[in-house]
Specification:
Blueprint lengths: L3 H14 L7 H11 L6 H12 L4 H26 L3 E2 L2 E2 L1 H4 L2 H19 L4 H28 L7 H26 L4 H28 L2 H4 L5 H4 L5 H9 L2 H11 L5 H15 L1 H21 L5 H15 L4
Helix pairs in contact: 1-3, 2-6, 3-4, 3-8, 3-16, 4-6, 4-7, 4-8, 7-8, 8-9, 9-15, 13-14, 15-16
């Protein structure tokens, strides 16, 4: 099997070799710009790892892997518009560098390009792969809508939040792995176990993202630290803090939620409240539970242990993100 680094190199080479020469340039230049911003390429790598896990050849899965990465970046492009995010991977977001209309249309083209790559899988699994990809795409959109709905609600529960991030984040990791498994020749029940692994890993990853938004180093995290706090985004951190806060702490938290007059002070004050309530430790505990559930599903997959060890290592690497 290839190493994670080798698979990342294959993915990056395929992305770098893809040239968008169609006109108008304003439609395609944002796609190249966003795709070249990098990242760990975890989703396409998971497609390739999953293919090799069952003895398949990565070359047969590369188109689908790049399709997954293009789809993922399409969601990021549109999410950044909705979130009014100024930074993506340490660089200006597409709607800031160009404009919102360009970002919307370029994202639409990316969705089409993703499907064009996905239909290159073998005919024997085409229907299953497209069903998984379509369900995944719908789930991501449903999760994003739920996330937007939460903006106008003050009663979001942890259960609702976890379901939202399952759809918005986890199903894409899970679907990537299930598609890769089918390309590799896995039986459907084995591919479903890999889906379970990816889903729980995705939940853990998003909780880690919530933590890093508060405690991460912006140079290493690649996004605006404290952005969730400034936008009053319903994250595990905020929902749990509101659940635990009483008395003066609850009053202070609510006061800061209602103001944006001093962004620096708001981030510092709410972070201090999280520290008082030990919210970070609670989030890390739940995150670790999802990791363990993911690894339990991985253990049940009927392939040689050394192949699973590579995927286990990727899971551990995925969650060790620099702060």
């Amino acid at each position: 099997m290839h190493s994670i680094e080798q698979l990342q190199s294959l993915v990056n080479k395929a992305i770098n070799d893809t040239k968008y020469t169609e006109e108008p340039a304003e439609l395609y230049e944002p796609i190249s710009y966003l795709m070249q911003l990098g990242g760990k390429r975890m989703r396409p790598v998971l497609v390739l790892v999953s293919t090799e896990l069952f003895g398949g050849q990565v070359e047969k899965a590369l188109d689908a892997a790049i399709g997954i990465e293009i789809f993922h970046n399409f969601t990021l492009m549109h999410d950044d518009i909705m979130d009014k995010a100024p930074i993506r991977r340490g660089k200006a977001t597409v709607h800031v560098k160009w404009n919102e209309s360009a970002a919307i249309l370029s994202g639409d083209v990316m969705f089409v390009e993703a499907y064009k790559l996905m239909i290159k899988v073998e005919d024997s699994i085409l229907r299953d792969v497209l069903a998984i990809f379509s369900d995944t795409a719908s789930g991501v959109c449903q999760g994003q809508q739920a996330d937007m709905n939460f903006e106008s609600r003050n009663d979001v529960s942890l259960a609702e939040y976890l379901e939202m991030i399952r759809q918005k984040t986890a199903v894409l990791l899970a679907g990537s792995m299930q598609i890769g498994a089918l390309i590799g020749g896995a039986a459907k029940d084995q591919a479903e176990l890999l889906y379970e692994f990816g889903e729980n890993l995705g939940l853990a990853f998003q909780l880690q993202d919530d933590i890093l938004d508060v405690y991460g180093d912006p140079e290493k995290f690649g996004k605006q630290v404290g952005g969730d706090i400034l936008s009053n985004k319903k994250t595990f951190m905020l929902i749990k803090a509101k659940e635990l806060a009483t008395g003066n702490i609850a009053d202070e938290l609510n006061q800061w939620i209602e103001t944006n007059d001093n962004p620096t002070a708001k981030v510092e004050a709410i972070t201090n409240i999280y520290n008082q309530l030990k919210v970070r430790k609670l989030a890390e505990s739940v995150m670790e539970d999802y990791v363990q559930t993911a690894l339990y599903a991985l253990d049940k997959i009927e392939v040689k242990s050394d192949k699973k060890n590579l995927l286990r290592g990727f899971a551990e690497q995925l969650l060790i993100r620099e702060q």
